[in-house]
Amino acid sequence: MPAVDPVAALNAPAALQPRPKDDPARVEDAARQFEALLIAQLLRAARADSEGWFGAGDGATASSVTALAEQQLAGALAAGGGLGLAAMAVSGLKK
Question: Residue 90: helix, strand or coil by DSSP?
Answer without folding.
Answer: helix
